[in-house]
Specification:
Length: about 170
């Protein structure tokens, strides 16, 4: 018998190696797939679309995205003017109103409704500035969601959003 011809021992080596590789893959597959996020986690971070058509001027609605309350306000001309006339340099967290709304859609204010002090949920159309008021510790925000008075260190956050049409937004 020549050394170039396969033997039964060569077959056993190849068969054992193949079974070992299949076994390693069978063990590794569930370990790797368990690292993927589950369906509820994926759904929790999915973008949501909100129809703005039924929201009347002066009204603030609340929706939930990623388990956070999102305030969507339809601001009146008066509220927009009050927010724009404030000099941002005089605010604790300086930010112009134009940086908090989308260009051409000044009437729509979209905010994460969580107080930046201790995570309470502020009330809309409350406080001295007719914006948002956190009754837990007294933080007051203006009609643009900027901190004006109280212990909160920063403005109400603006979530990532875009206008899909003139009356519909996508948050996330």
């Amino acid at each position: 018998m020549s050394a170039a011809e396969p033997t039964r021992r060569d077959f056993l080596y190849i068969a054992t190696g193949t079974v070992g590789a299949v076994g390693a893959a069978a063990v590794a597959w569930p370990m790797i797939s368990q690292m993927n996020p589950d369906a509820s986690t994926i759904a929790a971070g999915a973008p949501i679309e909100v129809d703005l058509g039924p929201v009347a001027e002066g009204q603030v609605i609340k929706v939930f995205w990623r388990s956070k309350p999102i305030f969507i306000g339809h601001r009146s001309k008066k509220e927009i003017e009050e927010a724009q006339k404030i000099d941002p340099k005089t605010l604790p967290d300086p930010q112009p109103d134009s940086a908090r709304v989308k260009p051409g859609h000044d009437q729509w204010l979209v905010l994460i409704g969580i107080c930046t002090h201790l995570g309470c949920i502020p009330l809309a159309h409350q406080g001295e500035y007719d914006g948002f008021f956190c009754p837990c510790h007294g933080s007051q925000y203006d009609t643009s969601g900027r901190i004006r008075r109280g212990p909160a260190p920063a403005n109400l956050a603006v979530p990532p959003y875009e206008f899909v049409s003139d009356t519909k937004i996508r948050i996330g």
